[in-house]
UniProtKB/TrEMBL annotation:
<dbReference type="InterPro" id="IPR013783">
    <property type="entry name" value="Ig-like_fold"/>
</dbReference>
<dbReference type="GO" id="GO:0004896">
    <property type="term" value="F:cytokine receptor activity"/>
</dbReference>
<dbReference type="InterPro" id="IPR003531">
    <property type="entry name" value="Hempt_rcpt_S_F1_CS"/>
</dbReference>
<dbReference type="InterPro" id="IPR003961">
    <property type="entry name" value="FN3_dom"/>
</dbReference>
<keyword id="KW-0812">Transmembrane</keyword>
<protein>
    <submittedName>
        <fullName>Interleukin-9 receptor</fullName>
    </submittedName>
</protein>
<dbReference type="GO" id="GO:0009897">
    <property type="term" value="C:external side of plasma membrane"/>
</dbReference>
<keyword id="KW-1133">Transmembrane helix</keyword>
<keyword id="KW-0472">Membrane</keyword>
<keyword id="KW-0732">Signal</keyword>
<dbReference type="GO" id="GO:0016064">
    <property type="term" value="P:immunoglobulin mediated immune response"/>
</dbReference>
<feature type="domain" description="Fibronectin type-III">
    <location>
        <begin position="33"/>
        <end position="132"/>
    </location>
</feature>
<keyword id="KW-0325">Glycoprotein</keyword>
<keyword id="KW-0675">Receptor</keyword>
<dbReference type="InterPro" id="IPR036116">
    <property type="entry name" value="FN3_sf"/>
</dbReference>
Length: 197
């Protein structure tokens, strides 16, 4: 430890002021800000990571700030990573689609660390990101799926109609009616399958 004092001449007399009777540099650290902050945004989340000296990774804690690019830092949102790893994720639900965001991070020694104590570092350089849009299915796939959804109940309904009609018309001319209706149903299925292809 050290003893820190201030000496000066005040009103013609020399004075000494003891500022820190027992100053321990390990308890008064100000770290450099994190480096190389980067981001990668997808439709579901945005990953942000940065670099710090490897020997400090396990004893640091971080605070991330992010905001819409055009807004002021005074209204930025703060996030704290759940671990000492130099990375964090922002869920897509916290971001507005089509809006550009900017983020920065700072660090200090963790409150759980007994050997060292520090204040927050200055803020890092910034990274810019934008939530990716949800990918749209190709129009051809959508059309095929729509046809498939209609084909199943349509086929089932047609079959029920033919069976019901056949039952009613068996009294009149069962030999002539049923083959004709079955042929019509088969023709409907062939046409629908042709559309699906």
């Amino acid at each position: 430890g050290y003893r820190v004092s201030l000496q000066g001449n005040f009103f013609g007399r020399n004075h000494t002021y003891i500022t820190f009777p027992e100053y321990n540099p390990r308890k008064h650290i100000k770290l450099d800000p994190p480096l190389n902050i980067q981001s990668n945004a997808t439709a579901s989340k945005c990953q942000i990571w940065w670099s710090v000296p490897w020997y400090l990774v396990e004893i640091l804690q971080y605070e991330l700030q992010y905001k819409e690019y055009s807004m002021s830092w005074e209204i930025a949102l703060n996030k704290t990573p759940p671990s000492s790893l130099p990375q964090i994720e922002i869920e897509a639900t916290e971001l507005r689609s089509g809006i550009t965001y900017i983020a920065r991070v700072r660090c200090k020694v963790s409150e759980n660390e007994d050997s060292y104590h520090s204040q927050w570092s200055e803020w890092s350089q910034t990274t810019v990101f934008q939530r990716a849009g949800v990918p749209k299915l190709p129009e051809k796939i959508l059309n095929t799926r729509t046809i498939q959804l209609f084909f199943i109940p349509l086929s089932f309904g047609t079959l029920l109609y033919l069976l019901w009609n056949c039952k009613l018309s068996q009294k009149a001319s069962p030999a002539l009616t049923f083959p004709h209706q079955l042929l019509s149903f088969s023709h409907s299925i062939v046409c629908t399958m042709g559309i699906l292809r």
